Known about the structure:
Blueprint: H1 2-5, E1 13-20, E2 23-30, H2 37-42, H3 60-70, E3 74-80, E4 84-92
Amino acid sequence: MNAIQAMPYGGTIHIRTRRSGKNVSLSVTDTGTGMTSEVKRQLFIPFFTTKDVNEGTGLGLPVVHGIVTSHGGTIEVTSEVGKGSCFEIILPIDGPTEVEVSQS
């Protein structure tokens, strides 16, 4: 939805999945308006939004970030103002690494 909204005058969205070693990834790339480095720094902060009132809550990306990191994954974001953005979610195939804690 964010990619669509970033292209108010149209554009292209590419969705790609791939496997690389012990990871799988999903990337969504758009040819939209792109983001400044200041906006990129705040993307995953709850309630941060660049959208108008009643158009977004600023919760979508923080929720996605929480889900991805809880599964041992990461989100990589690249963006250039006027050229578009790419969000790549990388997840381990085997899930998060569990650490055993022994108590004496």
